[in-house]
Design brief:
The chain has 154 residues and is mostly beta strands. It has 2 helices and 7 strands. Strand 3 and strand 4 form a beta hairpin.
Length: 154
């Protein structure tokens, strides 16, 4: 695996710590990322997204969705089950999990729903007015400064 030195990025920039940290985390991430539970991330509009997570076997009470410091944390913990059941095959995994998603600046969670074994989390990017591009009007025919006739000093 290749490793990248991000030190020049830190030396030549100010205020890009989050980007450098994100790149550092992505490059140094453990290749054994958890694959449970499976999920999809889709872009539903120009500034809207939806994360869908397969959570078969979990009820609403077993699931938690939290936003902490620009991270979306989805966790599930199944309540204690009745041990009197005898399974011949147990293919539905209901083991506890915690899945983290890093959110970009100005992305907020607008809602979550749980239906048919899928947890849907809706996100929206809302850029503040002060950060949106704006057009500066150019004045036409601006008044010229008054010209004063020069007089000799001698």
């Amino acid at each position: 695996m290749r490793s990248f030195d991000l030190a020049p990025l830190h030396r030549a920039s100010v205020g890009f710590d989050q980007i450098a940290d994100l790149m550092d985390r992505a490059l140094n991430a453990d290749s054994r990322q958890p694959s449970y539970p499976p999920y999809n991330i889709e872009k539903t509009d120009s500034d809207s997204y939806r994360i869908s997570i397969a959570v078969a076997g979990f009820s609403d009470a077993d699931l938690t969705v939290e936003v902490k410091e620009n991270a979306l944390v989805v966790a599930a913990r199944k309540a204690e089950e009745d041990d009197s059941r005898t399974y011949l095959h147990r293919g539905i995994a209901t083991r506890a999990f915690e899945r983290r998603f890093t959110l970009a600046d100005h992305v907020r969670v607008t809602g979550a729903s749980h239906e048919n074994g899928m947890l849907h989390i809706d996100l929206k990017r809302e850029v503040p007015e002060a950060l949106k591009p704006r057009r500066i009007e150019i004045a036409r025919g601006a008044a010229q400064p008054e010209m004063v006739e020069a007089k000799p000093v001698n």
